[in-house]
Structures
1.
Amino acid sequence: MESLLKMKVLDLQGNKVKEIKTPEQFNEPYHPNLIKRAVLAIRENKRQPYGAYPEAGKRQAVDISRRRKDYKGSYGKGMSRVARKTMWHRGSQFAWEGAFVPGTKGGRKAHPPKASKNRKVKVNVKENRKAIRSALSATLNETLVKLRNHRFTNFPLIVIPAIEDLKKTSEVMLVLNKLGLKDEIARTESKKIRPGKGKFRGRKYRIKKGPLFVVSKNCPLVKAVSNIQGLEIVSINKINAELLAPGTQAGRLTIYSESAIEKLEKEKLFM
C-alpha cells in the first residue's frame, strides 16, 4: 500500500493552509492479519473474570463410612457409594441424601467456569507496534476508509493545533461541518436496538463508529468530543490497534491534529 509523500493541513474552516511531510510510521504496508491479532488480543484482555464460587456445592458434611461395624456406616445396606449427608438418625438408623458430588441435589458442578483461569493474551512488542503502524497507514488509504462506509469530502484530515483548544461541543460540531463531515455525523447519530438478550444486559443499543480524534495531549477537546455519539478521542501516545481498526477492520476515518503528527515523528512512537 502506497502512502502519501505529503499531507495537507486544514484550518478550522476546512481550507488548506500548508503541507507537511508524512512521518515514517505511515509508510508501513497493510497487514490485516497483524491488525486482527492485535485487536483480538486487546478485546480478550478486556474480559472480566467470571466463575462459580470455588466452594459452591462442597459446603456439606458427607462423612459416611463403607466399613463393617462403623457407627455411621452404610455397610450391608444395599446402597450405592454416592457421597451423602445425614438428614436424621435414631441410634444407628440413618436417613441420608446424596450431596457434594456432581449429579446430586445441591452438589458441586463437574466442570464449572473458574474465575482463577488466566485469559490474558500476549502479543510481541514489535509485532504490536507493527500492527499499530499498519493501522495508522490504513487511515491514509482512501479506499480502505470508504470500505468502512465513512462519508467525507476532505481526505486526509490533518487540522491545525488550534482544534485542541475547542472547549464546547457546539464548536466541535461547527468545525466538523466545515471539514465536510456533516453526512458522517448524521450517520453516527442513528442507533438501533440490539437483537437478542444483550439488550437486557447494559448493551441495549448498537451505535455506529464515527471518526477518531487523535491529539497530542490531554486537552479541552477531550471533554467536548465525548458528548458526540460515535466519536472517540485519544492521545497519540495512547493509541492502539482497536481504536484505529474497530472490529479488526482497518481504515477508520481519523482526524489528526498537526501537533499530534509532530509528536509522532519527533518521539519516534511505535517504531
2.
Amino acid sequence: MPSYLVKVRKKMDIYSQRRSRNVLSGNYGSVFKGRSMDFDDLREYTYGDDVKDIDWKSTARSNKIMVRRYIAIRKHNILVVADNGRAMSTLAPSGETKGEVAAFCAGVIAYVAQRHGDLVGMVYGNKNSSKRYAMKEDTAYIENFLDKYAKSVSIDGDASDINSLLTYVTKSFRERMFIIVITDPTSAATVNRELIRRLNARHEQMYILIEDSPMTNNLISDQSVNDIEGDIRLPHYFRTNKKIAAAETQFRANQRELIAKGLRRFGIVSCSIDSTDHAIPRIFQMLEEQKHVRR
C-alpha cells in the first residue's frame, strides 16, 4: 500500500474562522485558529469578528482596527469528500489519472491536519454509492482509507454525481466540520447552490478541482483517445489542431474562473490542480487565502 502521508513533507497551515465546540476534545495545539488563552498574532478586523477580540492599543498605533487571534486547543474534524466516479479515472494534464492526483491531494490535507492533532475522515462516492470513514487521528487508519479511495476509482465505475455525495454528507454528519471537496471542474460546475448554503450553515468548505487533460495534450498526441462518457473516438487531426487547442485552453480558463467566482460568493476558496507535482504549492496558496476569506 503506498504511503500518501509520507509523500507530503512541506509544512502548511489551515485557518478556520470558527472555533471548535467539541467539549470532549483534548488539549492539542490545532492547525485551526480559535479562542483559547494562547495568543497567536494580530490581524486587521473583518466583518464577523468578535468585538471582544479587538486590541485597542494596536488599533491606536496602526490607525486600523486590529483583532487578536488565539491558538485553538481543541481538535477539529476534517472531512475529505472525494469524487470517485469514472470521470476521475481519466487523465489529468500531467498524464496521471485524476484519481491519482485526487488521492495525493487528500493525502496533503490529511498530513497537515494530522500533524497538528486534528481528526481526519473521508467520504467518497459517485451517483449510486458512497463510502464513509469516521474521523480519527490514527496514521494507519488514514493511510487505509486513502488507499481504498485510490483503488475505488475505475473506468468501469458509476458516473460522478457531486450533488448526491454532498447530500449524503448533509444527512450523515451532525458535528461541525471543515469539509474539503475534491472533484473535477465538470462536476464542480453542477453543484447545487442550496446544498452549498446548507453546508455553510454549519461547516466550512474548500474545493480542490482536479483538471482534465486537454484533448490536444502533447503527452497523448500519438495515442488513441476516446471520450469517457460517450465512448467517442477523437480523431488525431482534431487533437493536433492549433485553433482547437487555443479555444479549449480559453474554455477551461473561463470555466475555472466561473467556478471560483461562484464559490467565492459563498465565502469558499478553491484551487485547480493539474498534477501531483503542483499540488502542494497550490493547496498551500488556497490555505493562505482561507485566512482572509469573508464568509
3.
Amino acid sequence: MLHLNNIKKTFNPDTINEKVALAGVDLHLNEGDFVTIIGGNGAGKSTTLNAIAGVWPVDGGSIVLDGIDVTGLPEHKRAKYLGRVFQDPMTGTAATMQIDENLALAARRGKSRGLGWGIHAKERKRYKELLKILDLGLEDRMTSKVGLLSGGQRQALTLLMATLEHPKLLLLDEHTAALDPKTAAKVLEITDRIIAENNLTAMMVTHNMRDAINHGNRLVMMHEGRVIVDIGAEEKKKLTVEDLLQKFEEVSGEEFANDRMMLS
C-alpha cells in the first residue's frame, strides 16, 4: 500500500541552521498494516508523515501510494488518498460548525460540490449511526457546535472524519498526546476499532512506548532520520519496553535518553 524509497529532507540547507530531518527513509507497508512509530525528539517521525502528506517537497527518493507515485503531487492532490489526525484536538475540525456539518465536509472532501441543500436526511441518518460507534453520546448532539466538545470528544470526531471515506492510508500524528490518560485510552480504543472494522492501512506516531507495543501489528523505531528497527507482528506480541530500549542501544550505539518517552 505504501512504499517510501530513500526519502531525504534537509531544512535550511547550506545555512548555519541546516538540519537533516530525513536521511534516507525506507519503509514499506502492506494493505491492512497498522504501524506504530517511535523515536526520540528529532528522529524524523512527524517529518515522515509530513513527507507522505506532501506538506513540502522531499529532496530525494519516491513515495508510492497504492501503486500511484505521489512524490511530485502537491498536498491538496494527495488529500483524497489520505486521512490524518493531528496532536492538537483543535486541528482538523471547524469549531463554529455543527457536528453533522463537520462530517458532511469530510464526506465531500475531494468531490465536486453542487448548490443543493447542505445535508440530506439520508446523510444525517448515516452520520448518526457512525457517531454511535464512538459511544460518546454525540449521535444525540449532532447540531451542537464542535467548539463546545471536550478535547477527547473532538479528537474522536476528527478520527471519524478522517476515516469516513476509507482513505488508502491513515496518518495519526501523536493524536492522543494532548489528552489525559483515561481519555487517551478511550480514543486509542476507538482507533483500534475503526482501523480493524474498515481494514485500514495506518501509521501512528507516538511518544508512549507501551502504546506503541500494545497497538498495531508492526512497530518501527526511528533515529536521526532513518528507520533503525522494524518489528513484525509475532515478535511484537512478546515485546517489552526493556526489549525496545535494548534494541535501540544495539542498533544506534547510543543510550536512549528521551525523558518524555521514558516517563510514559
